[in-house]
Amino acid sequence: MNDQHIRPVAETDLQVWMQLERDTFTETFKPVYSTQDLQNFLQEKKNDNTLKAEWEQKDSFFYILWEGSTAAGFIKLNLHRQPDNGTLLPTPVMELERIYVRSEFQSKKFGRQLIQFAYEQAARHFVRTLWLGVWEHNVKARKFYEKEGFTAFGEHSFKVGEQVDRDLLLAKIL
Questions:
Q1: Residues sharing a CB contact under 8 Å with residue 8, sequence separation 6 or more, in sequence order
Q2: b or e along 119-153 (b: 16 or more beta carbons within 10 Å of the residue's beta carbon)?
Q3: pTM for the complete prediction?
Q4: Average pLDDT in the 43-47 region?
Q5: SS3 of 96-145
Q6: Residues 15-26 pLDDT 10s
Q7: pLDDT greater than 60 at residue 1
Q8: Cα–Cα dist 65/81, whole Å
Q9: Exposed (0-12), middle (13-18) or buried (19+): which is 8, by Cβ within 10 Å?
Q10: How open is the CA angle 140-79-125, to the nearest 5 degrees?
Q11: Fewer Cβ close by (within 10 Å): the C or N end of the chain?
C-alpha cells in the first residue's frame, strides 16, 4: 500500500521543493516555450534565492504531497491575496497560486488530493473565495477546475521570456 501524505514545506525540505517546482514547471510547459525563454524564466523566477524569498513570505503556504519518500506534487496558497486584474472577490480570499503534480503521478488523482487539501486549508482560515489562474490552452486543467466548481471571472497576462500568454482567472465560493 502506498503512503501518501501532505505536509508543509519545512526548511529541511526546501531543496526538494525547489527542484520539484522547477521539474514540474518544465514538464508542463517545455512544449509551449522556446528553450531560451524557458531557461531564462527558470533562472529568473525559479532560482533558489527567489523561491526561498517566496517561501518566507507572510501568508504564503507551501505543501508537498509525498508518496512514501518521493515528492510527487505541491501547492502554493496565498492567504488574503486578491487578483491582480482589479477584481475584488468576496473576502476572506485565498489564491491557489500553484498546483503541480509530477507527470508520472498524474494518473493517481494526486491533483484531486491537493485541491481537497487546499479546500481544507481555506476552511481552516475561514476563506470565502478560492481563486486561481490557469493558462487558457491548458484544457485538462480547465476541465478539472470546472468539475470542481470554479467559474471564470477575468484574465491576466503571464510572461515567460518573450512570450506573453493569457491566463483565465477562476474562482469558487466556498
A1: 61, 62, 63
A2: bebbeeeebebbbbbbbeebeebbebbeebebeee
A3: 0.95
A4: 97
A5: EEEEEECHHHHHHCHHHHHHHHHHHHHHHCCCCEEEEEEECCCHHHHHHH
A6: 999 999 999 999
A7: no
A8: 23
A9: exposed
A10: 105
A11: N
